[in-house]
Design brief:
Blueprint: H1 4-9, E1 24-25, H2 36-49, H3 59-79, E2 87-90, H4 93-108, E3 114-118, H5 127-136, E4 139-143, H6 153-157, E5 164-170, H7 182-191, E6 196-199, H8 211-214, E7 218-222, E8 233-237, H9 239-244, E9 255-258, E10 263-265, H10 279-295, H11 297-315, E11 321-324, E12 333-338, H12 343-352, E13 355-356, E14 358-360, H13 365-371, E15 376-380, H14 387-404
Parallel strand pairs: 1-13, 3-4, 3-5, 5-6, 6-7
Antiparallel strand pairs: 2-8, 7-8, 9-10, 11-12, 12-15, 14-15
The chain binds pyridoxal-5'-phosphate (PLP).
Pyridoxal-5'-phosphate binds near residues 125 and 202.
């Protein structure tokens, strides 16, 4: 069970007022708050051990290198990767997807080839693939979305042909909250010998991820959405792909030997980590993961399911509420519009009542086009949110509705 009061004490930012009321932070899908241990760990490494990794023979550099490589170990065991060198540190989901799109595209995608992505993707799982298509003369095929926010897996099966080169879909949708049936999506793709990239930006912090059991070829996530520092992220890739794909960026650390005639590249994982890495960030990310592990993913899931059930019940009673995304399997996220009130107005009024939500298209313009809307208000909760906060949020929504008539 979750000790919510103890947990909230670990997140100093939650214990402050923005205007008059203690802040209600329901914008966790955009970025999550950081527990004290993450702040302390990053401080400690800057204060006591700051030194560049992998290149020094002195004490500080060795300490920092050891902590950085231990952070990789923490990520490896958190997602149950087979090898530590299958974990590549990046600056976030966006960079991880760009890395795969570019390097996989370089090696395996050619004219008239096809890439399957879903209709409900964040722009960072659309645009990198479009860029590959432009470069290589390939095409995007869209796995259709159904009105309730679930992907149409019957239509998906029909998208494959001998030109299909890769599938890229999200684990959980940041605009609708749907937890996609990635096990089936991966299985179907593999029946056609097609690899799958999972954009786990909204999955990793709400679900147990076991990349070997999932058998995904790539899994990407951002540190800042799982209570870690900004500018950190992970690309998990099966060893075979990471070995076969060419490097992404050139520079220090990613090479073995350099002459003006020829450069040889480093082994995994450094082959994909050119230049000075965000090593203190990665160590902070590992502190965030360890914090989550202490609470326990099972407890987190159970608590968030309880919160979501309560939120769904309460919000459905708010007059003139329209909820977008009613899939059976969802993270604790609600996208909605309130009567004829513009989503920005609802968000701004809620802000004045000390409630942080997100408004707009959530970097999912094709999803908004599908529903024929410009955007929604999005409340996204996590394990440090409470029933009391939901009650206050619902009362505030009703007030917003009354104010706008
Ligand atoms: N994919 C999804 C589903 C997201 O929700 C986000 C961010 O909101 C991203 C990708 C991009 O993540 P980042 O901006 O951390 O790289």
């Amino acid at each position: 069970m979750i000790d919510i009061q103890a947990i909230r004490k670990d997140f100093p930012i939650l214990n402050q007022k923005t205007y008059n009321h203690q802040i209600v932070y329901f914008d966790n899908a955009a970025t999550s708050q950081k527990p004290q241990i993450v702040i302390d760990t990053t401080n400690e490494y800057y204060l006591k051990y700051n030194s560049n990794i992998h290149r020094g023979v002195h004490y500080l550099s060795e300490k920092m290198t050891e902590a950085y490589e231990n952070a990789r170990k923490t990520v490896k065991s958190f997602i149950n990767a087979k090898f530590q060198h299958e974990i590549i540190f990046t600056s976030g989901t966006t960079e991880s997807i760009n890395l795969v799109a570019f390097t996989f595209g370089e090696k395996y995608i050619f004219e008239n080839d096809e890439i399957i992505i879903s209709q409900n993707e964040h722009h960072s799982n659309i645009v990198p693939w479009q860029m590959v298509c432009e470069r290589k003369g390939a095409k995007i095929k869209v796995l259709p979305l159904q009105y309730n926010g679930e992907l149409d897996l019957n239509a998906y099966k029909k998208l494959f042909n001998d030109k299909t080169k890769i599938v890229a879909v999200n684990h959980a949708s940041n605009s609708l909250g749907t937890i996609n049936n990635i096990e089936t999506i991966i299985k179907i793709a593999h029946e056609h010998n097609v690899p799958v990239l999972i954009d786990g930006a909204q999955g990793i912090q709400h679900q147990i991820v076991d990349v070997q059991q999932l058998d995904c070829d790539f899994y990407t996530f951002s540190g800042h959405k799982i209570y870690g520092p900004t500018g950190t992220g992970v690309l998990y890739g099966k060893e075979k792909w990471l070995n076969e794909m060419p490097p992404y960026k050139g520079g220090g650390d990613m090479i073995k030997t350099v002459t003006f005639e020829k450069t040889t590249y480093n082994d995994l994982p450094l082959k994909y980590e050119a230049g000075t890495a965000n090593f203190v960030g990665a160590i902070g990310l590992s502190a965030a993961i360890k914090y989550v592990e202490i609470i326990g993913m099972k407890n987190i899931i159970e608590y968030e399911e309880m919160l979501f059930k309560y939120l769904k019940e309460k919000i459905s009673k708010v007059p003139e509420i329209r909820i977008y995304g009613t899939a059976t399997n969802k993270i604790c996220l609600i996208s909605f519009l309130l009567g004829k009130i513009h989503h920005f107005d609802t968000g701004m009024m809620l802000d004045k009542m000390d409630i942080a939500v997100r408004t707009g298209n959530h970097c999912n313009q094709p999803t908004m086009q599908f529903y024929g809307i410009e955007g929604t208000v999005r409340a996204s909760l996590t394990y440090y949110n409470t029933i009391e906060e939901i009650d206050y949020f619902i009362d505030s929504l009703i007030k917003v509705k009354q104010l706008f008539g």
